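idk why but the lab printer keeps eating my pages so im just putting this in chat instead. protein + fe (iii) ion:
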Amino acid sequence: MAELVTNDPSLEGPLGIVRDAALVVEDDRVAWVGRAADAPAADRTFDLVGRCVVPGFVDSHSHLVFAGDRSAEFAARMTGEPYDGGGIAVSVEATRAASDDELRGLLTHRVAEMRSQGSTTIEIKSGYGLNVDDEARALRLARELTTETTFLGAHVVPPEARGDRSAYVDLVVGDMLTACAPHARWIDVFCEPNSPYAFTEDESRRVLRAGLDAGLEARVHGNQLGPGPGVRLAVELGAASVDHCTYLSDDDIDALAGSETVATLLPGVEFSTRSPYPDARRLLDADVKVALASDCNPGTCYSSSIPLAIALAVREMGMTPAEALQAATLGSARSLRRDDVGHLAPGARADLTVLDAPSYLHIPYRVGVPIARALDL
Ligand code: NIG
Ligand code: FE
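predcted complex ->
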């Protein structure tokens, strides 16, 4: 191959690039990386002459378990309607009405769509069931396709519970958590004082603490619609990641900089909601760990494309192509507390994404052109 991006810091530059490279896979792991001229013999070879290979994209934030769509809501936003989370109820109604087989079919199709664009590790959240049975069902189905499943019963207060928010939070931390925890690795909450449907700081803290007590690990939707407590709460509770980070104060940046919590940026959301893009440059300059993910969902971003997220990060958020690619691989792997993906050093999972191009620079450069795909070994 023309160029191999390993993210191995002992190799060239921050991306650990090897030119005229080869890579040997044994079982599902990388066994050897180096110059093609020095490669050991192998049983089977893939001819990738002239191509670039990068670590499979790690899409650490998606909401793939839903039925129906909200294209009319998108069209209204493009003419100036703001997003406030109210449309989530539309997806909840359609998702509850769908059969297991319908949902499984939709989910399988969306995961295949992601792989065909280069994503090899995919996190999937619940959050369109919002009752005990439908949340547990979403996670059971997601678990058939990934180990990175996230319980998001605290996505919004569903319409039937709006008269009594605290009873809904009781349900989330009680019977819903009990039913969902066996199928989930993570707990998440939409902590957003700027939406009447999402959760306050205190409610969010309660949900996350209950999840942690049940053995789940925490991640947070925070600071999406305006300034808020999400980032600081995520850091306080040692969450692996706080996602969106569209509106950040100096204190938020300081809190992130002194922590292990990753700031996951989702520029497809800013694109599809006509919002300002997060200040990635400020985060990177403060040494905050940054990830990029799609947030594929029917409301704020119905795009499963990590190459698009990379292109937006470069064009709109001041990230270099190298920073953006690293954020969508190593950064997002870190946000999932995974050290076996996101890089291609010997021992890592052999999750390879092939570009129909000679260099990783073509990911943002050839925006909108489907040059990336996961390699089926
Ligand atoms: O990540 N912010 C909350 N949740 C999703 C949107 C869900 C929806 O609108 O359906 C997000 O943007
Ligand atoms: Fe989300």
